[in-house]
Structures are given as C-alpha cells and as structure tokens.
C-alpha cells in the first residue's frame, strides 16, 4: 500500500511538472516536487552533511564566510532574500563549496587555499548560490522523478528519512545535491554568479584569478569536481570577457555604497 501511494505521488508530481525560463533565457523542466519539499530536502541534506562533518570552530573564518554570503544574498530577488540563509564551515582540505535549496551554504576550509581574498571567495559562493536561484536542484530532481530511485526520494519527503539512511542510500546521494551539475548548469551558474558578485560590490575580474588558482592547485589539471565544467581555458576566457562587460555594474555598486569589508 505504501509503495502504491508513493507511486501515485510520482505520477502526480510528474503531472505537475512545467517548463519555465531561467534568468539567462534557458528553458527548464521543473516542478517535480514543490518548493516546500525542495527546501525540506535541502535542509535534510544540510543536516546530513553537518553530521558527517567535521565542522570548523574557527570564529574568524566562519564570520568571513557569513559576511560574503550576506553581501551576496542582499542582491537576490526579494523571495530569496526572505529565506533564512545558513552557513557551515567544514574542516576539510578539499577546496570546495556548495549551496542547497532553502538557503544552506557549506564551505570547506580548503577553499581558502585557492580563494585568496573576499572577491575570489565571493566568486565561489555566488556561483553556488546561482545554482539555487536558477532552480538547478529542481531540474535534477524533476529528471529523477521518473527513475527507480524516485520512490525512495519521495519516501524521504514523506518522513521516511531514517529508513532511507539505513538502506545505505543517503539523501545526498539520492538527490545528487552535492554532485556537479550538467555542463549547461555549470556555465549558467558562472554567468549568474559573476553578475551577482558584481552587483554585490565584489570585483567580477577576480573570478578569473580564482579559477586560475583552482587549476594551479591541481598541478595544471582542474580538480575532479570541475570535470563537468567547460574546458578550463575557454571558461577563463568567458569569465574574463564577462568581467569587462560587468565593470559598469561593479562600479555602480561601489558608488552606491555596496563595498563589502569581509576580510
């Protein structure tokens, strides 16, 4: 009976799917789950990530991350600003970060080895926040709704998270929240993130330096988690070109008093 109910929920979810358009003009297929359910999944995945930890208790670095996130969030649409954004700093040497639906942002301490200043950190976090505001997680789950894992996924939504975990299928794995997005999504997050950082008063040209640092940290090869991104050299060229286009946006933000002082 339980599986029948969940199967019916899958059918209902698929029927509710719809096409929409991202801020870059790309058509998206979304709506496999409601916004409330998506935020619930994000919150549960964040709890899981923090439970696995370990978390960093470095007060200065935690404040630094919160400062950059807050500066970026202030430039988001009103609905996104109304979300209670939460950050977590993980004691992990891998240079990585993520953002989840519901306003959850995680950062590894290893990111500071490649993000040398607040503008470069903003480039990382704006990119990750871009995935959230452009509904990339919604897209992923909507695609998964027709897969065999959908019953387990909806089981988690129905409150069966404990059972899901004991079956060896964590929520993070089921949703793919922390896996790289498609190449199209990663490119879109670059575009949206670089625009967001400029609007917040962070230098968009520093996105170029950040990704150069990323590649250098891998001994001339990009980290494995960047494998779905465009060719590194092409990507850097696109970031450099957009930085020039966004220079007026950045200058206007600074003139308007948006001058972040995070560290």
Automatic annotation (TrEMBL):
GO terms for biological process: proteolysis. Binds 1 zinc ion per subunit. One of its GO terms (molecular function) is peptidase activity. InterPro entries: Mito/Outer_Membr_Metalloprot, Peptidase_M48. Residues 60-242 form the Peptidase M48 domain. Residues 1-18 form the signal peptide. Its cofactor is Zn(2+). Keywords: Hydrolase, Metal-binding, Metalloprotease, Protease, Signal, Zinc. PANTHER family: M48 FAMILY METALLOPEPTIDASE (PTHR22726:SF24), METALLOENDOPEPTIDASE OMA1 (PTHR22726). Belongs to the peptidase M48 family. This is Zn-dependent protease. The lineage of its organism: Bacteria, Pseudomonadati, Pseudomonadota, Gammaproteobacteria, Lysobacterales.
């Amino acid at each position: 009976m339980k599986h029948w109910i969940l199967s019916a929920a899958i059918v209902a979810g698929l029927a509710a799917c719809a096409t929409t358009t991202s801020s870059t003009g790309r058509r998206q297929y979304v709506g496999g789950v409601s916004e409330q359910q998506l935020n619930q999944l994000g919150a549960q995945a964040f709890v899981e990530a923090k439970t696995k930890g370990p978390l960093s208790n470095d007060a200065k670095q935690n404040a630094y991350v919160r400062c950059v996130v807050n500066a970026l969030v202030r430039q988001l649409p009103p609905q996104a600003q109304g979300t209670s954004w939460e950050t977590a700093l993980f004691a992990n040497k891998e240079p990585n970060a993520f953002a989840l639906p519901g306003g959850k942002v995680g950062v590894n301490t290893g990111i500071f080895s490649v993000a040398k200043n607040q503008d470069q950190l903003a480039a990382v976090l704006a990119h990750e926040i871009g995935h959230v505001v452009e509904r990339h997680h919604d897209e992923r789950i909507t695609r998964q709704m027709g897969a065999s894992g959908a019953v387990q996924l909806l089981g988690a939504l129905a409150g069966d998270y404990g059972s899901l975990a004991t079956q060896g299928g964590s929520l993070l794995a089921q949703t793919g929240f922390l896996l790289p997005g498609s190449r199209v999504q990663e490119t879109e997050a670059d575009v949206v993130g670089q625009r967001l950082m400029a609007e917040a008063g962070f230098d968009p040209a520093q996105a170029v330096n950040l990704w150069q640092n990323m590649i250098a940290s891998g001994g001339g090869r990009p980290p494995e988690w960047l494998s779905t991104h465009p060719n590194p050299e092409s990507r850097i060229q696109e970031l450099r070109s957009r930085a020039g286009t966004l220079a007026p946006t950045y200058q206007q933000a600074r003139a308007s008093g948006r001058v972040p002082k995070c560290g």
